[in-house]
Amino acid sequence: MRKKVFHSLGMILGCMLCILALVSGTTYAKYVQKMSGHDQAKVASFINNVSTDHETLTQDTNLTLWEDIIAPGSQGEFVLHVVDQSEVQVQALMTLELDNPQEIPLRFSYQGTTYEDLALLNQRLNQVLEEEFKKGPTSNIDIELSIGWEWPFFISDEQDEKDTQIASSTSTVTLHVSCTFMQVVSES
Prior knowledge:
By secondary structure, this protein is an alpha+beta fold. The protein has one domain. It is built from three helices and seven strands; from the N terminus they run H-E-E-E-E-E-H-E-H-E. A hairpin with a 2-residue loop joins strand 4 and strand 5. It is rod-shaped, with a radius of gyration of 39 Å.
């Protein structure tokens, strides 16, 4: 009887193993397929600069905008070249700032208009830049801004006295030029 029980148990166990192998074998079978792809994009260029007839502006460039020595009656002109070859929409903001502790009565001119206030000249220059930069990317913008300057020889007797006092001390005047180029999102 013991043999019969072991034999029956063996048969049952064998059948269970076969069923288990059959069931677990089908759970490991599956279809496998790998798919992949890729895309590549060129990064848009952001190429722009400002230069004079002599130098290209960097972080802090020593510019040659006027003569080394100026006096009443001195005048001249300098040209700022604003170039943009970017492949994105760009906005440019130009700023001219005068470090003039002695208050030398300098005047600047652009396109026939004289400016005693640099804020007004900056406003005009930025209007010109805005119009040009509206053309959009890849338009290869190259703008020449010709800016005149002068220290008038005679304004008044009072100014003559001030001019003489300025010349009696060690005085300097510095014109700072900066241009910031920014990518903008077009509104179209």
